[in-house]
Amino acid sequence: MSKCRRYLMRRDWGFMLLELLLVIIVIAILAGGYFARDRGPAGRSTYQQTMSRTDDAVCKANRATLRTQIEMFRLSNPGKAVTSSNLKAVGVNVPTCPQGGVYAFQADGTISCTRHPEGLKPGEIPPAAGQGQ
Protein backbone atom coordinates (compact mmCIF):
# COMPACT_ATOMS: atom_id res chain seq x y z
CA MET A 1 0.00 0.00 0.00
CA SER A 2 1.32 3.42 -0.88
CA LYS A 3 2.17 6.00 1.75
CA CYS A 4 -0.59 8.27 0.51
CA ARG A 5 -3.31 5.63 0.99
CA ARG A 6 -2.07 4.80 4.45
CA TYR A 7 -2.18 8.48 5.37
CA LEU A 8 -5.73 8.90 4.02
CA MET A 9 -6.97 5.82 5.87
CA ARG A 10 -5.38 7.02 9.10
CA ARG A 11 -6.65 10.61 8.81
CA ASP A 12 -9.28 11.73 11.31
CA TRP A 13 -12.20 12.86 9.09
CA GLY A 14 -14.24 14.10 12.07
CA PHE A 15 -12.04 17.15 12.41
CA MET A 16 -12.72 18.13 8.79
CA LEU A 17 -16.47 17.85 9.37
CA LEU A 18 -16.20 20.15 12.37
CA GLU A 19 -14.28 22.70 10.31
CA LEU A 20 -16.91 22.56 7.57
CA LEU A 21 -19.71 23.13 10.07
CA LEU A 22 -17.90 26.14 11.54
CA VAL A 23 -17.46 27.68 8.09
CA ILE A 24 -21.16 27.17 7.32
CA ILE A 25 -22.13 28.79 10.63
CA VAL A 26 -19.91 31.82 9.97
CA ILE A 27 -21.36 32.24 6.47
CA ALA A 28 -24.90 31.98 7.85
CA ILE A 29 -24.18 34.66 10.46
CA LEU A 30 -22.72 37.01 7.83
CA ALA A 31 -25.60 36.41 5.42
CA GLY A 32 -28.11 36.92 8.20
CA GLY A 33 -26.65 40.33 8.92
CA TYR A 34 -26.80 41.30 5.26
CA PHE A 35 -30.38 40.16 4.67
CA ALA A 36 -31.72 41.05 8.12
CA ARG A 37 -34.77 43.26 8.55
CA ASP A 38 -35.05 46.38 10.71
CA ARG A 39 -31.70 47.68 9.50
CA GLY A 40 -32.84 50.81 7.71
CA PRO A 41 -35.81 52.93 6.77
CA ALA A 42 -39.14 51.09 6.76
CA GLY A 43 -37.48 47.89 7.99
CA ARG A 44 -35.78 47.17 4.67
CA SER A 45 -32.73 44.94 4.58
CA THR A 46 -29.34 46.09 3.37
CA TYR A 47 -29.81 44.04 0.21
CA GLN A 48 -33.17 45.68 -0.52
CA GLN A 49 -31.72 49.16 0.07
CA THR A 50 -28.82 48.41 -2.30
CA MET A 51 -31.13 47.12 -5.02
CA SER A 52 -33.40 50.15 -4.66
CA ARG A 53 -30.47 52.57 -5.01
CA THR A 54 -29.25 50.62 -8.04
CA ASP A 55 -32.68 50.78 -9.69
CA ASP A 56 -32.84 54.54 -9.01
CA ALA A 57 -29.45 55.08 -10.66
CA VAL A 58 -30.40 52.93 -13.66
CA CYS A 59 -33.67 54.84 -14.07
CA LYS A 60 -31.82 58.19 -14.02
CA ALA A 61 -29.30 56.93 -16.56
CA ASN A 62 -32.13 55.64 -18.78
CA ARG A 63 -33.84 59.03 -18.65
CA ALA A 64 -30.59 60.78 -19.60
CA THR A 65 -30.20 58.41 -22.56
CA LEU A 66 -33.80 58.98 -23.53
CA ARG A 67 -33.31 62.76 -23.31
CA THR A 68 -30.42 62.55 -25.80
CA GLN A 69 -32.48 60.35 -28.11
CA ILE A 70 -35.37 62.83 -27.97
CA GLU A 71 -33.06 65.73 -28.86
CA MET A 72 -31.78 63.78 -31.87
CA PHE A 73 -35.36 62.92 -32.85
CA ARG A 74 -36.43 66.56 -32.67
CA LEU A 75 -33.49 67.65 -34.83
CA SER A 76 -34.21 65.08 -37.52
CA ASN A 77 -38.05 65.35 -37.33
CA PRO A 78 -38.95 69.01 -36.67
CA GLY A 79 -42.58 69.58 -35.74
CA LYS A 80 -43.32 65.90 -35.11
CA ALA A 81 -44.73 65.01 -31.70
CA VAL A 82 -42.43 63.14 -29.32
CA THR A 83 -44.15 59.90 -28.31
CA SER A 84 -42.88 56.41 -27.65
CA SER A 85 -44.54 55.13 -30.80
CA ASN A 86 -42.96 57.88 -32.95
CA LEU A 87 -39.54 57.18 -31.43
CA LYS A 88 -39.90 53.44 -32.06
CA ALA A 89 -41.08 54.12 -35.64
CA VAL A 90 -37.78 55.79 -36.50
CA GLY A 91 -35.75 53.00 -34.88
CA VAL A 92 -35.05 54.50 -31.45
CA ASN A 93 -34.78 51.88 -28.72
CA VAL A 94 -36.78 53.42 -25.87
CA PRO A 95 -35.32 52.31 -22.51
CA THR A 96 -37.59 51.15 -19.71
CA CYS A 97 -37.52 51.67 -15.97
CA PRO A 98 -36.04 48.67 -14.09
CA GLN A 99 -38.93 48.77 -11.60
CA GLY A 100 -41.59 48.77 -14.32
CA GLY A 101 -42.30 52.50 -14.34
CA VAL A 102 -43.49 54.34 -17.45
CA TYR A 103 -41.58 57.33 -18.81
CA ALA A 104 -43.60 60.43 -19.70
CA PHE A 105 -42.35 63.27 -21.90
CA GLN A 106 -43.31 66.70 -20.57
CA ALA A 107 -43.72 69.87 -22.66
CA ASP A 108 -40.92 71.62 -20.74
CA GLY A 109 -38.46 68.91 -21.78
CA THR A 110 -38.42 66.89 -18.57
CA ILE A 111 -38.79 63.14 -18.54
CA SER A 112 -40.64 61.71 -15.58
CA CYS A 113 -41.08 58.16 -14.38
CA THR A 114 -44.15 56.81 -12.60
CA ARG A 115 -41.93 54.92 -10.11
CA HIS A 116 -39.32 57.65 -9.60
CA PRO A 117 -41.18 60.98 -9.40
CA GLU A 118 -38.26 63.38 -9.76
CA GLY A 119 -37.85 64.52 -13.36
CA LEU A 120 -34.60 64.85 -15.27
CA LYS A 121 -34.26 68.44 -16.50
CA PRO A 122 -32.99 69.17 -20.02
CA GLY A 123 -29.20 68.99 -20.12
CA GLU A 124 -29.00 67.45 -16.63
CA ILE A 125 -26.57 64.58 -16.23
CA PRO A 126 -27.50 61.97 -13.62
CA PRO A 127 -24.95 61.24 -10.89
CA ALA A 128 -22.80 58.16 -11.41
CA ALA A 129 -23.81 55.02 -9.57
CA GLY A 130 -22.90 55.27 -5.90
CA GLN A 131 -22.71 59.07 -5.91
CA GLY A 132 -25.22 61.60 -4.75
CA GLN A 133 -27.40 59.38 -2.59
Write the layout of secondary structure elements.
Layout: H1 3-10, H2 13-35, H3 46-76, H4 84-89, E1 103-105, E2 111-113
Antiparallel strand pairs: 1-2
Question: What is the compact description of this entry?
Answer:
With 133 residues, the chain is mainly α. It is 51% helix and 5% strand. The chain is elongated.
Protein architecture, described:
- By secondary structure, the protein is mostly helical.
- The protein has a domain at 46-113: 2-Layer Sandwich (Pantoate--beta-alanine Ligase, Chain: A,domain 2), CATH 3.30.1300.
- The protein contains four helices and two strands, in the order H-H-H-H-E-E.
- It has a two-stranded antiparallel ribbon with strand order 1-2.
Task: Name the features.
4 helices, mainly alpha, disordered C terminus, Pantoate--beta-alanine Ligase, Chain: A,domain 2, 133 residues, 5% strand, two-stranded antiparallel ribbon
Distance separating the two termini: 65 Å
Output mean pLDDT.
76
Tell me the major beta sheet: 2 strands, antiparallel
Q: Can you give the helix content as a percent range?
A: 40-55%
User: In angstroms, what is the radius of gyration?
Assistant: 27 Å
- Assess the beta-strand content as a share of residues: under 5%
Overall outline: elongated
pLDDT under 50 segments (min length 5)?
A: 126-133
- Indicate the structural class: mainly alpha
Q: How many strands in all? A: 2
Number of helices: 4
- Specify the CATH class of the domain at 46-113: Alpha Beta
CATH architecture of the domain at 46-113: 2-Layer Sandwich
What string, H for helix and E for strand, traces the elements in order? HHHHEE
Q: What is the CATH fold-level name of the domain at 46-113?
A: Pantoate--beta-alanine Ligase, Chain: A,domain 2
Main sheet: which strands, in order across? 1-2
